[in-house]
Specification:
This protein is of the alpha/beta class and 261 residues long. Helices cover 52% and strands 14% of the residues. The protein contains ten helices and five strands; from the N terminus they run H-H-H-H-E-E-E-H-E-H-E-H-H-H-H.
């Protein structure tokens, strides 16, 4: 018994990481849908929208690709989703007086898109503005050398960006913007960030916790015995409840017999 108590006390002293809470996008079944992510990104990338966070996302985007940025020099600004090209659509296009940015958003799918087609569209609309095509994904996408060369000739800079790096820039900057944010949109924004985080990392929490795994390995036999005793206790409890229920039925049967006379 003392050994069982020690195992329980050791278990209670562990700081086991709990799985994160369910996000709103998980509730509605859209947690990993690229078009949903793109629309949300478009909303928060647009400083004119009512979220109140101004250029947080745009500044963070430029920082994460290590390119200079000054929002004050921008005289016009538009964000498009599903921007048409000759052969397809670019997930996001940001146009300003200074630059044109195309963003190919990859959540779970592989990069199969015709980037040269996208770059051609960006080049045709750039009018000598600085042009970028960003592939935003969980892991750096693999782009063939001939594709890179064709994009260089089109004067569209190809940039491979991971969500991890983008989120890091957002975290660094968010403190300067949250006081101006509209509460309802800020809550949704944080939930969206949590949703991205959950998609970036596997849903394996205890296996990644070395202290917890060490405890289970070192106390395997004790945990097994506790589990067996718990199962036996549960079984005996159910038997006792059934017996008590039968006894109560017997005790009340005579009342039913009298009332039926």
């Amino acid at each position: 018994m003392e050994e069982d108590i020690k195992t329980l006390n050791d278990f209670q002293s562990l700081n086991i990481k709990e799985p994160p809470e369910t996000t709103f996008l998980e509730i509605i079944g859209k947690s990993h849908i690229e078009t949903t992510w793109s629309r949300i990104l478009a909303f928060f990338l647009d400083p004119k929208q009512r979220h109140g966070m101004k250029d947080l996302m745009l500044r963070s985007l430029f920082e994460s690709i290590d390119r200079p940025f000054s929002f004050h020099s921008i005289r016009s600004y538009q964000v498009h989703t599903e921007y048409p090209t000759k052969e397809g659509r670019i997930d996001l296009v940001i146009e300003s007086s200074d630059f044109v940015i195309g963003i190919e958003n990859k959540v779970n799918a592989l990069l199969y898109n015709n980037l040269v087609d996208y770059a051609t569209t960006i080049n045709n609309s750039s009018q000598k503005r600085k042009s970028y095509l960003i592939v935003l994904s969980k892991n750096n996408a693999d782009v063939k050398e001939d594709v890179k060369e064709k994009m260089e000739r089109l004067q569209v800079e190809l940039l491979l960006l991971t969500y991890e790096k983008f989120l890091a820039s957002i975290r660094r900057n968010i403190g300067f913007y949250h006081s101006h944010a509209e509460t309802r949109y800020f809550i949704f924004f944080l939930d969206f960030i949590d949703n991205i985080e959950k998609n970036l990392h596997t849903n394996i929490y205890m296996l990644n916790d070395q202290e917890t795994m060490k405890f289970f390995i070192n106390n395997f036999e004790g945990i097994k015995k506790l589990s067996e005793k718990t199962a036996l206790l549960s079984k005996e409890k159910n038997i006792a409840i059934t017996q008590l229920d039968n006894e109560l039925r017997k005790d009340t049967q005579w009342i039913q017999d009298i009332t039926s006379l």
